[in-house]
Amino acid sequence: MLPRCATRVCNVFVLVLCLSTAEDFDWTKSDRGSFYYGTFPTGFSWGAGSSAYQTEGAWDKDGKGLSIWDVFCHKKGRIYQNETGDSSCEGYYKVKDDISLIKELKLNHYRFSISWPRILPTGIKSDHVNEKGIKYYDILLDQLLENNITPIVTLYHWDLPQVLQEKYGGWQNISMVNYFNEFANLCFERFGNRVKYWITFNNPWVMAVEGHETGEHAPGLKLRGTGAYRAAHHIIKAHAKVWHTYDTQWRSKQKGMVGISLSGDWGEPVDITNQKDIEAAERYVQFYMGWFATPIFHGDYPQVMKDFIGKKSSQQGLGTSRLPTFSSQEKSYIKGTCDFLGVGHFTTRYITQKTYPAGRISTYFTDRDLAELVDPSWPDPGSEWLYSVPWGFRRLLNFVKSQYGNPMIYITENGVSEKMMCTELCDEWRIQYLKSYINEMLKAIRDGVNVKGYTAWSLLDKFEWDEGYSERFGLYYVDFRNKNKPRYPKASVQFYKRIISSNGFPNQREVENWKRKAMETCSSSNQLLAADPLTSHMEMVTEIVVPTVCTLCILLSAVFLMFLLRRRN
Ligand SMILES: *[C@@H]1O[C@H](CO)[C@@H](O)[C@H](O)[C@H]1NC(C)=O
Ligand SMILES: *[C@@H]1O[C@H](CO)[C@@H](O)[C@H](O)[C@H]1NC(C)=O
């Protein structure tokens, strides 16, 4: 395995050289791992992100309806340690606190999502509009704008109203297209005067595959080989419809943009001299980001998906492909429905060809005919799937540029988690991850990729779906054991702040200085966190002891008064 890795690295290195000969940046001619000192274009937007279910809490407050995630988490055995997002970071009650963290970082933008059932408790506009839910987002938006922070708003970050799931089958049913469009239209109407960047869906790949194929995510369906494709089909149509609604009804007044946030790992051929591996790696990326991006930019699914799923379906004896088809009207309706592309990216895999026999069970995974590998030397500081492979980010961005006509890109998610139950605020590995991934993004911009902004994922530690609270992605640590959910800065806050204020990486001496300083400050934050049990103890003092003492005082005074009165008599 190891000698193989060594040759791989060499191959990759050669590929980098080949790719870069066309460019006039000689810095790419050095080693793949070399760091590029330089700054981002003026006006580059720096941000951090969150999502409603992961941070808001208040799952049943102020008239909010249930989402599929509320119901999914309340069933035992679905989530690590049976945790839920019921209270999470209590973001619903902590708008002011969180705005001050955003200001502390000096962010240009903040990305959050609107909870559909908080605004439309049954999901359906004609049933009931929950004004209290609207008010929460009104306050959040107003406070962001007062502080010159641009909101980037996601309409759907996985929390479908439960009623729509129960009554109609959720994303398996085409009727979601209209319900989602009505919800989006309401958001444009009520918030569109203040929001100029709309994202229809966050990472529909996960919604489709983990929600409808493997069942690890809500709604927990295991419709192998069909469920993910059907859900994705409806999601793509819903995205297109919402884009058209904005385009025809709101764009001229509100002058904003509508995009989608697609996540994708990069897939690198194990052996770049092997045509089969090259094709397998291409399939990996096409089945991932291409599944959604190709219809949106070119009108139809990637040819390789149509070919492979079609072939596998007929081997199973099915009359039609398990991959649904778009009519020609639908193709032209869907094509070009993206004003900017949100890119979420975390990690990379090596890919090799692997043929799955035409058995009875076909899944999204076996349809691709490939195997995923990782290099054992890649650092994996956090989640088990999350290996740090910075150069994959640049590859993916260049792929997006060449495949989809160099679209305007906002990075909507990029970051790293940490190991279980870690209370370490000195997150050196996150500093390393951010530094190298942001640097690869800078290189991609030099390659001509049109990246306009970067969103670190995420502002806070939060509920991590099926992983519960066992994985922490935040720049800020949240103490979930304390019911006030206090936030503490990790060292990466200091480091990210410096990147933002310098709009890049000025020179080696300074960047190393940032890191050293960040690591110094975090030890005092660590002491704060260690003192936290004391703080909660002090809260107990105020909540129990103080009222008790007061009551006793009043009683004693009463007795004393009676005593005095008696003496007088
Ligand atoms: C979660 O719930 C399941 C089913 O009730 C139970 O078997 C399991 O022990 C629970 N786990 C924890 C950590 O409470
Ligand atoms: C799909 O939704 C419609 C309502 O919009 C409903 O009448 C129909 O029964 C649903 N189909 C399925 C299979 O649930």
UniProtKB/TrEMBL annotation:
Gene that encodes it: lctlb
Enzyme class: hydrolase
Sorted UniProt keywords: Glycosidase, Hydrolase, Membrane, Signal, Transmembrane, Transmembrane helix
Family recorded in the similarity comment: Belongs to the glycosyl hydrolase 1 family. Klotho subfamily.
Cited PANTHER family: GLYCOSYL HYDROLASE (PTHR10353), LACTASE-LIKE PROTEIN (PTHR10353:SF336)
SUPFAM superfamilies referenced in this protein's UniProt entry, alphabetically: (Trans)glycosidases
InterPro entries: GH, GH_1_N_CS, Glyco_hydro_1, Glyco_hydro_1_AS
Signal peptide stretch: 1-22
Residues at the active site: 413
Spans through the membrane: 544-565
Protein name according to UniProt: Cytosolic beta-glucosidase
Catalytic activity: a beta-D-galactosyl-(1<->1')-N-acylsphing-4-enine + H2O = an N-acylsphing-4-enine + D-galactose; a beta-D-glucosyl-(1<->1')-N-acylsphing-4-enine + H2O = an N-acylsphing-4-enine + D-glucose; beta-D-galactosyl-(1<->1')-N-octadecanoylsphing-4-enine + H2O = N-octadecanoylsphing-4-enine + D-galactose; beta-D-glucosyl-(1<->1)-N-octadecanoylsphing-4-enine + H2O = N-octadecanoylsphing-4-enine + D-glucose
